[in-house]
Amino acid sequence: MSEEAAIEVAGLLKSYGDTEVLRGIDLRVPAGGVHALLGPNGAGKTTTVRVLSTLSGPDGGVVRVAGHDVRRERAAVRRRISVTGQYAALDEQQTGRENLWTFGRLRGLGRRAARERAAELLGSFDLREAADRAVATYSGGMRRRLDIAAALTGGRPRVLFLDEPTTGLDPRSRRTTWGTVSELARQGVTVFLTTQYLEEADHLAGRVTLLDRGRIVAEGTPAELKRRVAARRLELTAVSPTAHQELRRRLDVAPLHDDPHGLRLSVATDGTAAAVRGLLDRLDPTADLLARFDVLDASLDDVFLALTGRATRPAGTRPKETGHAA
Amino acid sequence: MPHSHALGPTRAAPHRPAPTAGPLARVVTLTGRCVRLSARNLDALLMSLALPVLLMLVFVYLFGGAITTGDPATSYVTYVVPGVLVLCSGYGAALTASTLNGDLRSGVVDRFRSMDVGGTALVGGHVLASLARNAAATAAVLLVALLLGFRPRASLGAALAAAVVLLCYVLALSWLAAVVGALVSTPEAAGAFGFVALFLPYPSSAFVPVETMPGWLHGFAGHQPVTSVIESLRALLLGAPAGASPWIALAWCAVLLALSVPLASLALARRHR
Ligand SMILES: Nc1ncnc2c1ncn2[C@@H]1O[C@H](COP(=O)(O)OP(=O)(O)O)[C@@H](O)[C@H]1O
Ligand SMILES: [Mg+2]
Q1: Is pTM beyond 0.90 here?
Q2: Which end of chain A is more exposed for a tag (fewer CB within 10 A), N or C?
Q3: Looking at this predicted complex, what is its ipTM?
């Protein structure tokens, strides 16, 4: 059983009308651990999750989840998985407890077992106080917790699909969700989650698959992926548009990133003092072009950029790590 | 932060495939859910209960003086009760289009599907909840009618037969409404079915005898499904000989159901390609 992959996908195709959304996906997710499917908006993450979790049929290819074919053995797959979609799948006008009770009963629990399971989940997801309020009154974080709890009413699934589990959550709720995901993985659930946040994949996942426009562009551990680009990135900020142009002209390698509006340029570096000083001296010997520089750890953002030539989010929203006035 | 012990099932071994609920347990659970949701939808609830009261008042006090039923022994309130019952049932049943459509546009149905709960169980839950709503609306109509002077002359058997006819009518119309709810993509389109259901009883013998309508309408008004339902209810409630009309009504319902049940399931399957 442990030899068996939790998810095996070969040549998966899926179109909506004329739009080819998934264009030949191959994927193998070993049992256990957290696997992240990372990609920008519109990459096809939700479509992939829907096909893997039997909610949409594939147009081509073979998909096996928890040892069963999603097309031919759909019922068997459904008994072994749970899904929490991108948008909450809850009844707003039922209370948290009623939602969990309903799902538990539909999962085949008896009345009493469903009641106990609901109470247990409400406790472990910190929803005891809100248990008997309509979901319509819940905050985003509470809703998300209930939505994940709802995926566990039938017990621990073999494979748990979470589509963007933290999108739109405040940092505290995000941490809580991360804790839940890690805990479930520790208990032996294979978690397949999607995210647009590189730091999330980095933080949670043992393995990451990068999806771009319906194709897989890279796959590996976060460390392996980071190794595919330079370890560090030197981010330069020019004093003016003219200075930015001049720096760009003096650079003898292609920048990792060029953002004329933000007056920024990024260059791969090993981050040593010698290399950084050398580069700064070469680019700006008179010390009047550069406003500041930042040495940043290569993030999965950089991996994505290196592999697809496109950023996953608008320039200028990267978190700063070490900054130095130039 | 979740406590580790509580995330897993208390008694089950890890990774035991989830049990599957029997079809009956599913339908019962889904019906309970729909009844709870209906009871909390205040607008729809008020409308469902206010409509019978208002209709009775309108027909009896506004129109009743001007309409003669052709039978001096039958007061207009007694004549009109079956029509109002059918009108309200039609409206209540048509709400099924909106309730099902609302579910389909939310993510909840995906969760049901991922638990292998089929479309037929879902529609069954909505339709049974519709029966429950209509039972309440029917009780409201009868209560108001009794207060306004409605005096049924039905034997117990005839009253039961009338209840069966009305039940089948609501069942068939609710399932038809479910087909509409499964086919359309907007709540407005689903709501439009309520308009059809509200209008259909007028060209029938519900409120005025068919003979008083223009000749070209006789064919439709005399034979459409609603007419046979109303004629049966009227005869059964007034203790008159019902003739074949209850059987015609039941046959109509059977035909409607025979079409709607597979169509609703097909429409749901198509929706979830
Ligand atoms: N039901 C649908 N009908 C038509 N196009 C769709 C449908 N679902 C998704 N798409 C299209 O498929 C692409 C991928 O969507 P999605 O899987 O939701 O991406 P992601 O979850 O990565 O943001 C998008 O261009 C989207 O417009
Ligand atoms: Mg998505």
Answers
A1: no
A2: N
A3: 0.84
